[in-house]
């Protein structure tokens, strides 16, 4: 007698033919990869920029053009001086006040104006015309009314960021889907609830982008004001080094300005990504 060979049952046959499923990445792994994609490219560009600067200094072989090490050394020496540190802290204080004030007032006024189609058509072209004027051209007006000093610096910092932020807020509010507003009106939704539940979630991504963009404009306005008519601030320190042709100090101050701008820019970029991820689909 021949012995019959056993055959695999249906469950065993099915188990044998099921392909292996690759393990899915965990949440922590995905977050780490996403963070790496955001951080690594800027770091690569920064390192490449420093390397290019160093190569240019070596090729130029000039006593006037410093290399990165010399610029950083002069910056460390400047930071050891009490007057220099006081000027840096003064600039940071005015920048924070001017940027926050321009963001809050620009967003609120733009939100209120954008809800009215008539006022949007009437005022928006005027502000676009004002925004097209080079900022430094209007600085003498600030000097005439606010004088030379801290008030004119803060006012010009506020103005440099307020107008763009206001325009972003108006445009984003005016572009809210009208069908949503009509549906809310048909349901007799009150204005406070309409603004809170429909308008604000719709404009938040644009406002977050506007904040990131206007921070640099506020910083630029502050530096211009300090360079042209001030006896304090990091812009004043930069202009004084230029007048004395101290290239190491000039480049060191430029490095400090970049370091001052980097953390807020990264934080605002992170905030923008979070807001867009949460409200971008509305």
Strand and helix layout:
Elements: H1 10-17, H2 27-60, H3 68-79, H4 82-114, H5 117-132, H6 139-146, H7 150-174, H8 178-186, H9 191-228, H10 234-243, H11 247-279
Helix pairs in contact: 3-11, 4-7, 4-9, 4-10, 5-7, 6-7, 7-9, 9-10, 9-11, 10-11
Task: Write up this protein.
The chain is mostly helical and 282 residues long. It has one domain: MetI-like fold (Orthogonal Bundle), CATH 1.10.3720.10. It is built from 11 helices and no strands. Helix 4 (82-114) runs parallel beside helix 7, helix 6 crosses helix 7 (150-174) and helix 9 (191-228) runs parallel beside helix 10 (234-243).
Descriptive key words:
single chain, 282 residues, MetI-like fold, globular, mainly alpha
